[in-house]
Amino acid sequence: MKDLQNDESTRDISRAEEALLRLNSVLEVEDSPAPVDIFVQGTEQIVPIPREIAETLQKVLAIEVAGKSVRVVAEESEFTTQQAADYLNVSRPHVVKLIDEGSLPGYKVGSHRRVRLADLQNYKNERDTSQRRAVAELTALSEDLELY
User: Fold this and answer.
1) Which of 20, 39, 43, 129 has its Cα between 20 and 30 A from that of 121?
2) Contact (Cβ atoms closer than 8 angstroms) between residue 84 and residue 98
3) Helix, strand, or coil here: 64?
4) Nearest to 95 by CA among 72, 127, 129
5) Is 115 helix (H, G, I), strand (E, B) or coil?
């Protein structure tokens, strides 16, 4: 039996790949703040979009081509502790602990905790930077001890 969903996702990825290649070529050639014109097939219309949006679309297409999913979230969004845990790839109780100890800014709405997206991104960036620094230090130490 043929997997129709798998065939559809393969077609979507190849369409995204083609769109990414075309958008890359447009953005590489035009190094200006001018809008990028998108031709809408079937309507014969050209839609100008801001360059910043075209660059964001380029990133979205690259993620899609890699087979990953994309979710667009407003910067002002609030996350529940479970959503924050999913974003950070940790457990919900760990997020609650981070909020309670003040490592992650959060607030309560009634009896429920919430975390702003900007605070989550800041925490994640700081955590990732700290982890990279620790790995670099361990690598340097193991090289010094000729273990690496």
Assistant:
1) 20
2) no
3) helix
4) 127
5) strand
Indicate the length of the chain as a whole number: 148
- Contact between 50 and 37 (Cβ < 8 Å): no
Domains of the chain in sequence order: 4-65 (no CATH), 78-144 (1.10.1660)
Convert the pLDDT of each residue in 49-83 to its tens digit.
999 999 999 999 999 999 888 888 888 899 999 99
Instruction: Identify how many contiguous H helices and E strands the chain contains and give both numbers.
Output: 5, 5
The token duo for 3 is: 């997997």
Phi/psi at 134 (nearest 5 deg)?
Answer: -65, -40
What's the N-to-C CA distance of the chain in angstroms?
50
